[in-house]
Amino acid sequence: MSYVEWAESQLAEIELLSSMFPSQDELDFSDPLAVALLRRFVDGSASSVEGPPTSRPQFEIKQKMQSADVIVSCAYPSEYPSVLPEITVRCGDLNRSQQSQLHSDLGVFLRENCLGEVCVLSAVDWLKDHLHLYAPASTLTAPAHHHIYNKTKRKNILEWSKELGLSGFSMPGKPGVVCVEGPQAACEDFWARLKALTWKKIMIRHREDVPLGGRGEEEEDGGRAQTLDSLRKFGGFEEAMFDPHGNRGNHMDLGQLYHFLDERGLGDVFRMYFGIEGR
Q1: Distance of CA 187 to the CA centre of its chain
Q2: Record's superkingdom (predicted)?
Q3: Is residue 50 very low, low, confident or very high in pLDDT (cuts 50, 70, 90)?
Q4: Domain range for residue 47?
Q5: Mean of pLDDT values over 214-218
Q6: 109 alpha carbon, distance to own chain's centre
């Protein structure tokens, strides 16, 4: 490819990105003049003596992925897309090791699938699909003493869990219990929304944060690294009812709740909730 063809590909991708991320809060060019010079070169308004522009388009794409704030920084080499762009990903939910593994795996993906083609959108899509493999997983259990009766609250709990990609369950009635598992940032977002509702009393009774390994990373004992999906105890999120009884039909059978948890390897959580052994 010639410099003109490289520049044409770069400009076409920039225009596509600008249409997909129209707000500066989503797509921010650090040097708009570099884009203007690139366009001038492609349009042929630059003299042949000038040659291709020496300045390189650089920009940031800012997205919320699985409730985590992610910034994708990109710089175009002159020969892009015949060579890969310089892409850096920043996510406050990842530690240094997780971030390093993510960069390594993203680089492998781009080299194997995108060399010779514009690839920034492919990188963003890959991150959306794979970020959960690197972010810590959390389990939060929040008993809502006194109760969960309100239909709006129950609807919010179901909708928020689906929106944030969380699994777990909620038990309405008295006592009320909510348990969610998923990416750490998503669990914390869910908790912030939940506690902002009006409650007589609500608290996190148990929380567990588990570090995850990147794709292909091996555990020290030679086994496969843990992934978020391998750690999940629930297949999705549901509102669970356990033989409702009482005058208002709002008291649940705690024995059935214990067996529900124990079947998922969470029998010990029952004691954390209620301070008694399940049976």
Answers
A1: 11
A2: Eukaryota
A3: low
A4: 3-133
A5: 46
A6: 19
Residue 9 main-chain phi, psi, to 5 deg: -65, -40
- Output the pTM of the full model: 0.60
In the chain, how many domains are there? 2
What mean pLDDT is reported for the chain? 85
Asked, for residue 279, whether it belongs to a domain, the answer is: no
Domain shared by 149 and 76, yes or no:
no
Helices (H), 166-223: 184-196
User: Is 265 part of any domain?
Assistant: yes
Where do the DSSP E strands lie in 145-189?
Answer: 167-171, 176-183
Phi, psi of 218 (to 5 degrees): -100, 145
Could you tell me if 221 and 169 lie in one domain? yes
Backbone angles phi, psi at 15, to 5 degrees: -65, -35
Cβ atoms of 191 and 184 closer than 8 Å: no
Query: Helices (DSSP H) in the chain: which residue ranges?
Result: 3-20, 32-43, 96-113, 120-130, 151-163, 184-196, 228-231, 254-262, 267-274
Q: 263: which DSSP letter? A: T
Q: Which of 98, 133, 168 is the last residue of a domain?
A: 133
Task: Say if residue 279's pLDDT is above 90.
Answer: no
Name the β-bridge partners of 148. Answer: 173
116 Rama sector, left if φ>0, alpha if ψ -120 to 50, beta otherwise: left
